[in-house]
## 1
Amino acid sequence: MAETEKVQLRRGLRDVYIDRTQISFIDGKAGKLLYRGYNIHDLAESCSFEEIVYLLLHGTLPTKVQLAELDALLKQGRKLPKEIVETIRITKNAHSMDVLRTAISALSAFDSDITDNSPEATLRKGIRLTAAASSIVTTHARIRDGKEPLEPNPELGHAANFLYMLSGEVPHPEDAALMDKDFVLHAEHGINASSFAARVTASTNADLHCAVTAGVAVLKGPAHGGAAESVMHMVNEIGTSDNVPTYIRDTLKGGGRIVGFGHRVYKTTDPRAVHLREDAKRLGERKGQPDLIAILEAVNEAMEPYCRKGICQNVDFWSGAIYHLLGIPTDLFISIFAMGRVPGWTAQVLEQFSNNILLRPLLTYEGEHDLPFVPIDKRS
């Protein structure tokens, strides 16, 4: 009997549970997402990203004192070693995700906790990497544009400081609040491909820098983290809202897909997208670009029949437009995703370490067996 007849393949590990978790819960049919038991709708409307970082890493929402302590640690972690800035200069022509991956890996040389995988040390490293990731992305963006990087602004929160270090201007409060909400919505999402990579790395007892580097590497793949960027490419290709019906028809007829719709888990509207739609519309009006939102609204309307079949809008559909309206270069969109996800990856690594087992799945072999070996001088 062939080996393939003895096993049941689960290609893509679909519907395979690898462990238990207390970090996040996703109900794809109901469109429900919880962080540590709290509904994303409550968190998105009421919590700062700093609160979410605390929640994911500690398991509870912080008090005012605990939040202030975490905020101070994040602000301390924003300053990059001069060697890291030089590394960014050397790699400035690479994609922003490649620079982020390289710089995070290089930061391991400057972290005194690097060989310590205890929960306490891993948590400290996770806070520092959450802060540093933002500085890496903004430093790279400015250097590649021929500008000098900016020092972090200690008066600003995490999201506002990101926009400041990118543009050189203290952001409008509404812009900062919207960026903050976006980080909240991207902070954690179960055992997706990048989180799985981080846990596989941690299962070998590698350190957090290794795990986060792996997470960034996997997230770069367009099948995982590139949809927000693709949404803007789609908008530019469509041109005006009048062209939407033709674009949708031709794309689907040609076997293509409409980016920003469909999800591996959600079979209804992504609950994270709910919080960005109205924000995107208001932002479009405030920035004087209502036509962009009109195109997205037309696409969303045209796709309603498909949502009844489980192909609904996801978080990337609106986030790409928001990033664009905030003046963020398109090729940085995926890096923003990574910045927001660092605390989620850290929480996954902490959980993996807490009850560790080497993640080592199997492949079923379908090749030849026991072929006769022929020495090289007798091979024709």
## 2
Amino acid sequence: MSSATIPLDSPPEKSFREVWLISIGHALTHWYPATFYLLLPLIGKELGLSYSQIGLVMTCQYIAGAVSNVPGGMLVDTVGKKGLLMALSLFWVGFPYLLMGFTHSYLMLLVCVSMVGIGNNLWHPTAIPTLARSYPDRKGLVLSMHGMGGNAGDALAPLAIGALLATFSWREIVVLNAIPGAVMSIMLLAFLGTLQFSRKAKKPVAADAEPEGQGLAAYAEGFRSLVRNRTLILLSVGSAFRSMTQTTLLTFLPVFLAYEMGYSPVWVGGCMFVLQAAGFIAAPIAGHMSDTMGRRRIIMTSMVMSAVVLVFMAFAGRTNAFALFIAVLGFFLYAIRPVLQAWLLEATPKNMGGTSIGMLFGVQALGSSIGPIVGGAMADHYGLMSTFYFLAFTIVIANMFIFLIPAEAGKSASGN
């Protein structure tokens, strides 16, 4: 009897610690890109960049992410070592931003953001399957907590950096910004390493626990099943268009607020904070509702509302109403990230979770790489406001791919 009670009690306590630690690390992986979005208008002015060149900066970052995501997922599923990989990912995100503080070359800037794309996209194939396995019946809620960490980093970074820009230059900020990432990398390596050691020590009580890695033959068989998985393909492509919307918005919303509406860095940071804070509030609501009502219904509703709000923003133009719509957009646009991830993990084998998430984020990164360069070209030719009509179109396309997924595939599959 005593051996039967230990497996029931131990995993939730262990998993709860992992959830909070990994979510804090996730916040920092988002802190750095969110900082960069706020600094990008300043960098663009200093280097004399056009809208297309500004868009190309983000395109390079996401092309690198698209290329590195699937290999990153393969590394997670075959090698394991979750703590080491998450610590390496966080360090690799922060260090290139440090290098940016010392460059005056546009080409070197592109190299640095490409390095960020590689490091940032190693995080998700490692962290998301780890959390999903800890709470198999509450994937939506647990992954929304992980998503809230990302939203917190996205929200707090522009607010803090906007205030710091009143005192420091953007170059000084990217140098100072490297410190928290380095500290958190050490904490992740130390603490998750301890957890992994504890798992090995308690291996008899966790008989159903999955191994850290798997053989190449087993992995090859699992990979073949993934490339034939219709739900995985449709979710990934739909998510790519959603990410195209999000990344283009994050690239040009600060530029619009600074260039067209004349907002100071503090006010631009405040608007970006509102966008992400709304997403922070929406994530656990959407995650919990998707666990009870189904993934498909929540995703499609959120995407439709995102498209509607983007059209309203374009019509609002350079008025105060534009700023008010930012919070509404953030609520719907960011609510569905953890729901998409939970749905994907339910539709794919558990031992291929890292590769599944790597494929999702790889295709997302491809979409994200296209959006900013297209949005920049449209802004150069038709004006910056035309970009927001483009975003409304891309989120509608995203919803069409979700609609093509069979309705039964959107139900929670806790048995997976």
## 3
Amino acid sequence: MIAIFDKDTLLNALVPVMYTVSGKNTMACIEGIHMTCKDDGQCMLQSYDLEKGMRTFVECETEREGSCIINAQRLFQIVKTMPKGPIKITVDSSYKTVVESANGLSHFDIKSLPGSEFPTLPELKGDRGFMFPQHLFRKFVNRILFAIGQNDTRPVFNGAYFQITGNKMILVSCDGNRLAYCENDMEIENKNIAIGSTLNLKFIVPGKTLVEVLKLVKDTEEEMEIRLTLKYVLFKIGKYILFSKTIDSEYIDYNRIIPKNQNLELTLNAEDLRGALERSSLIIEDRLAGSIRSYVKFTIDEALSVSTQSANGNVYDEIEIEKLSGDSLTIGFNCKFLLDALKVCDDGKMKLGFVNPLMGVLIEPQSKEEGKYLYFVMPIRMNN
């Protein structure tokens, strides 16, 4: 294989492809980027960690067709440090690889692998799919991303649930301690292959995949396409296709988790509560005396008092509220769990709903923005 690339063009294409390179050091072929150059002026770049992968094309001048696998980190660092201008990559029959500048003054001799050793990728042509603006995807996913579990033993907690019905999209995430719910009606373009079929899709995307997708989407009206195969979800964003295994499991019955009736309801300013929790977080310890967790305590009467005690000190805040119904209540929370929910809420009024000290809090932003957003956070059993 012999191909000539523009340094900046190749470097810009490599950055996203690096997102799905394996970092587990188990197989040399998945620690690399698969390059396939043909006489059509395009080089296909692929990476795949056996769970998720990426495919894109970059312009090049192909002098000899071929394919190879080059260690991703090594290739990226080499291209990054090469001088501006054309870069020539030559791979001989023994897979000795030379990366050199056009003038030949800078060059690297490295070893690559045959392209045939790269794992077989899934079919990237799902028969069901839809399109909508990138900025809406970024907005909705950012509202529920914080509540996705990290390496939980229960697979569904490690992903976000998508439900698309006609022009309605519902996103849900839950890690067992908090739940985020987002519902919006909007224009969704049906891209199902079957003529006349309606959008009725349900699937679970791993949280780690969504983190990588967010690196590709922009705050723009430009549309992205999401397609589904039997076991994979495909995100087509510009010239990139990011694909990932879906979580093959039934999602939790989230409607049973969200309390329908609260014994105590109040409204307050979101910014006031966020500020109080940020001050509490300055002195909270995750673990105290080896096993006892410190927490933030809510005492609700005529006002909401937010207090914390730990080995680092004490903090107390009092927030004005408008009580809508119910009596007094004292309840404890993990401060970080509450803060994560409040950070994705807009400033302005929000409603808090409580059932009892053991049932947590339902947070409902009261912004005029279209859509419905709910956050539910479980409490901590306090020492006293």
